[in-house]
């Protein structure tokens, strides 16, 4: 039953957001930003909606957006991308991931995954007939266990899925780790599906380096991004896929039968947003890092052991020093109902039913307004 969609539970993000609403809690659970939505990008969508057209755009995406994405790849990563054959627009990175996994995986193919993992990966891979081979990162450092990763590859490996910057543990893979992953993919002739939705949310003077831009990996990488994250507009669901033409082809074939297209006004506005100057992109990361530090300092003051955060909009914190007796799901429910602050349990990012899953970490989204972060800390402080 586990391999059937009908056997699936409700995603942890909906579960926690509903609970937050029910208890009037400050929602630092589900990852969505507040107070950073760029007014000019929103105005561009409104203009486009009023002007039309109101019928299907091209299946691969509006030419203006595909051109803007190719220019983005050149500007930030020095990647030469052909906008006509190597770029596809999707309805969010969620769709891009489904297109890539359904498009590339044949029943019986093995797929290497790194735990903790984003919650949409496993259900889609299973439904595609893929066999997950999971490798686990360990808190608090979340470094790559190289021997275990090498052992997870086999002659049946079709692809490895790499999420960097990584949700929920806020890890950015090092150049060395990237090279190690790349070498394994080359040795096993595997694709690398790169979930890079947090590409512009890398902090402390570092910047994102796509696997696709590493020597020898251009042709085997599928690079996935999300305008939801880049423009703090998660409601919009505009994602994209960058891949070599032969790799993109089966992914595009899948996309035609899943959504076919994405609304024109949103595509048009994202195309305009991608032309923003460097100050916008640097400012986004800078703002977000300030929020990370604000929440991090508050949580530490309360007694949490807050782990390092190199990117994304999530802080993970060990709550054992607070003396709470219970696992992470119990803790997240407890603080929602009793303190009025919601977080997400990190154990939800592991394949269910396995042993050795960490159960003392909560994930807090810091992409919120200062007053919400301060109030959340004040509520937790009063409670503990
Ligand atoms: N991948 C990761 C790692 C994410 O955190 C998210 C969260 N939204 C997505 C994919 C989905 O992105 P989108 O909202 O564009 O579908
Ligand atoms: N990516 C967001 C998170 O990790 C949630 C997206 C969703 O609700 N599916 O919180």
Describe this structure in words.
Helix 4 runs parallel beside helix 5 (121-127) and helix 4 (92-104) crosses helix 9 (245-258). The protein has helices at 12-22, 39-51, 63-77, 92-104, 121-127, 146-152, 175-187, 227-230, 245-258, 264-273, 278-302, 328-339, 370-383; strands at residues 26-27, 87-90, 110-115, 131-136, 157-163, 191-195, 221-226, 239-242, 305-306, 314-318, 341-342, 344-345, 361-365. The strands form 3 sheets. Strands 2-8-7-6-5-3-4 form a 7-stranded mixed β-sheet, with helices on both faces. Strands 9-10-13-12 form a 4-stranded antiparallel β-sheet. The protein has a two-stranded parallel ribbon with strand order 1-11. Strand 5 (157-163), helix 7 (175-187) and strand 6 form a beta-alpha-beta unit. It starts with 11 loop residues before the first helix and ends with a helix. By secondary structure, the protein is α/β, with parallel strands linked by helices. The protein contains 13 helices and 13 strands. It binds 4'-deoxy-4'-aminopyridoxal-5'-phosphate and glutamine. Glutamine is lined by residues 11, 13, 30-31, 167. It is an enzyme of class 2 (transferase). Keywords: Aminotransferase, Pyridoxal phosphate, Transferase.
What is the helix content?
40-55%
Output the helix-strand order: HEHHEHEHEHEHEEHEHHHEEHEEEH
CATH superfamily of the largest domain: Type I PLP-dependent aspartate aminotransferase-like (Major domain)
The CATH architecture term of the largest domain is: 3-Layer(aba) Sandwich
Q: For the largest sheet, list the strands in their spatial order.
A: 2-8-7-6-5-3-4
- The mean pLDDT is 96
Number of E-state strands: 13
- How far apart, in Å, are the first and last alpha carbons? 41 Å
The set of bound ligands, ions and cofactors reads:
4'-deoxy-4'-aminopyridoxal-5'-phosphate, glutamine
């Amino acid at each position: 039953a586990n391999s059937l969609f009908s056997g699936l539970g409700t995603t942890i993000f909906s579960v926690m957001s509903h609970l937050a609403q029910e208890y009037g809690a400050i929602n630092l659970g589900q990852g969505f930003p507040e107070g950073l939505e760029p007014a000019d990008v929103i105005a561009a969508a409104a203009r486009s909606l009023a002007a039309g057209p109101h019928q299907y755009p091209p299946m691969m995406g509006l030419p203006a957006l595909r051109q803007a994405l190719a220019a983005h790849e050149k500007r930030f990563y020095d990647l030469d991308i052909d906008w006509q054959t190597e770029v596809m627009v999707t309805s969010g990175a969620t769709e891009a991931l489904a297109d890539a996994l359904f498009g590339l995986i044949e029943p019986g193919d093995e797929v290497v995954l790194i735990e903790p993992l984003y919650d949409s990966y496993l259900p889609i891979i299973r439904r595609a007939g893929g066999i997950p081979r999971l490798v686990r990162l360990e808190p608090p450092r979340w470094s790559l266990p190289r021997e275990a990763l090498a052992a997870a590859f086999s002659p049946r490996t079709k692809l490895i899925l790499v999420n960097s910057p990584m949700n929920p543990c806020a890890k950015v893979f090092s150049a060395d780790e990237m090279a190690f992953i790349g070498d394994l993919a080359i040795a096993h002739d595997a694709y690398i599906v790169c979930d890079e939705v947090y590409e512009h949310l890398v902090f402390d003077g570092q910047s994102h380096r796509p696997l696709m831009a590493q020597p020898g990996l251009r042709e085997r990488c599928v690079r996935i991004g999300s305008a939801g994250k880049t423009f703090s507009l998660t409601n919009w669901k505009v994602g994209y896929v960058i891949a070599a033409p032969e790799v993109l082809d089966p992914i595009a074939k899948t996309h035609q039968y899943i959504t076919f297209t994405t609304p024109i006004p949103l595509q048009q506005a994202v195309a305009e947003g991608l032309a923003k100057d460097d100050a916008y992109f640097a400012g986004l990361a800078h703002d977000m890092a300030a929020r990370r530090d604000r929440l991090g300092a508050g949580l530490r003051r309360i007694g949490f052991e807050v782990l390092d955060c190199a990117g994304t909009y999530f802080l993970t914190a060990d709550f054992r020093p607070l003396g709470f007796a219970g696992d992470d799901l119990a803790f997240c429910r407890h603080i929602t109902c009793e303190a009025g602050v919601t977080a997400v349990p990190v154990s939800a990012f592991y394949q269910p039913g396995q042993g050795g899953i960490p159960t003392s970490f909560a994930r807090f989204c810091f992409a919120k307004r200062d007053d919400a972060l301060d109030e959340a800390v004040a509520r937790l402080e009063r409670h503990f």
